[in-house]
Design a protein that fits this description.
Length: 446
């Protein structure tokens, strides 16, 4: 039976209609009425770094020849720990199970380690979960967004990143994106005298602060940063007007009082959102920011599990939830989070940087197209090497991302080409975490 022809029979199928597998349902797996003849035969993590960013993707194989799925499990700062979790622990746990029992597999993987809810294990589950959705889509002959209920918009509006050493350079870079059709741009500027700021390079004269600090340290002080951010948006609104939507990422780093001050000062510049004004450890201060500023707040890329977002959303203390789907456990918790946030008027803005594989980006866009409360999508444009390893990357045009219309994610990973891009010896991407310090040497979070 051709896979596409399963489409009509899938929802109502008796076991016998899903015919191409061999053995009966595994004794390990409860039979929920579909797909019990197809079993998971192998699960493995594949490591590759075509952009020198360490990616982890998971392949789930089945006993149906040619039927397999891919998921994103990327945690680029600790990728080998995720590989261990997948290969050594989830692989034996999952072999023989029914790949269509996505919810059961998610729930059982989640408690299979007893200790749960954190990074590494959630990344590993995410890789498996997205791969199972890919398999289901391939069996149904449908892209994953269709399995969620279809599109309610034709494409996902993207935001691009513009940075510079001073406000004029940032303005030039914002204009470049505007000329390419983008309606949303995140703007970051260097802080003069410091090289530890987020999202833009070192400021002028950054070296003079470092006499007593270990080599490799980047230096950051919150107050000069706060003032450079205010000066940036004064300049951008003066030169660009108010039609272009501007975003800014504080990336934590300041005291709660400074975050409140900056939120109030930036309010008049009508940002699309202000991202991560506080670290997860300080979320109770959001109440105070909310009470004193109308600036829209985006939060959540470091979140791991519902304990961290439920209160912020249900009390309507943030406007955009922006978790990393590969961090919270994949598409399954992501679609629940989107629906939960919709009920409280909170929009989605899934984390979408380069340390998210093309499959992770495809999962973001599947939810972007389906969720009514979609807000905005952070973009990453994959280079030629990445597109060589991952065929079927999202199409980006005029500031929109379009889903791949092929079944599943529509993305295949060439494992031989993936091997051509091993992890770099000393990846530059994540070396600032833990090495960014105040002038007095105390470490910045994060
Ligand atoms: Co961010």
């Amino acid at each position: 039976m051709k896979r596409r022809s399963l489409l009509a029979s899938l929802p109502a199928a008796g076991a016998g209609l899903l015919a191409s597998g061999r053995a009966n349902a595994s004794a390990k797996t409860p039979n929920f009425g579909m797909g019990e003849k197809i079993q998971i035969t192998d699960v493995k993590a594949v490591l590759t770094a075509p952009e020198r960013i360490r990616l982890v993707v998971v392949k789930v194989e089945t006993n149906d020849p040619g039927l397999y799925g891919w998921g994103c499990a990327t945690f680029t700062q600790r990728p080998l720990t995720v590989k261990t979790a997948v290969d050594e622990y989830l692989r034996p746990f999952l072999k023989g199970k029914d790949p269509s029992a996505i919810e059961d597999i998610w729930q059982s993987c989640y408690v299979s380690s007893y200790w749960r809810n954190g990074p590494v294990l959630n990344n590993a589950i995410s890789g498996v979960d997205m791969a199972l959705w890919d398999i289901l889509g391939k069996r149904a002959g449908l892209p994953v967004y269709q399995l969620l209920g279809g599109k309610c918009r034709f494409a996902a509006d993207l935001y691009a990143h513009a940075a510079g050493r001073d406000p004029v350079e940032v303005e030039d870079n914002v204009r470049k994106w505007m000329e390419r059709g983008y309606r949303h741009v995140r703007a970051q500027v260097s802080t003069p005298g410091y090289d530890g700021g987020y999202g833009a390079g070192a400021g002028k004269d950054a070296e003079r602060m470092k006499e007593n600090l270990p080599p490799g340290t980047r230096v950051f002080e919150p107050k000069p940063y706060v003032h450079s951010a205010i000066a940036l948006f004064e300049h951008l609104r003066d030169k660009l007007g108010y039609e272009i939507e501007l975003l800014h990422d504080m990336h934590e780093r300041v005291t709660p009082a400074q975050a409140l001050f900056l939120a109030k000062e930036l309010e008049k510049f009508q940002l699309f959102f202000l991202e991560d004004p506080l670290p997860p450890e300080e979320v109770d201060f959001f109440r105070h920011i909310r009470a004193q500023s109308s600036i829209p707040i985006a939060m959540g890329e470091l979140f791991n599990n519902p304990h961290e977002w439920t209160g912020l959303i249900s009390e309507r203390l943030i406007d955009f939830i922006r978790v990393h789907l590969s961090q919270i456990g994949g598409l399954t918790p992501g679609r629940k989070l989107a629906a939960f946030a919709e009920a409280f008027g909170v929009k989605t803005a899934w984390h979408g940087p380069g340390d998210n594989s093309p499959i992770g980006h495809a999962a973001n866009v599947a939810l972007d197209l389906n969720a009514y409360n979609f807000g905005i999508q952070e973009q990453h444009q994959f280079n030629d090497a990445a597109q060589e390893v991952f065929s079927g990357c999202l199409k980006i045009e005029n500031g929109y991302a379009y889903a791949n219309e092929a079944p599943g994610w529509g993305i295949d990973v060439d494992e031989e080409k993936a091997k051509k891009f091993p992890y770099p010896e000393s990846p530059s991407f994540d070396q600032s975490w833990g090495n960014t310090r105040h002038r007095d040497g105390s470490v910045i979070r994060p």
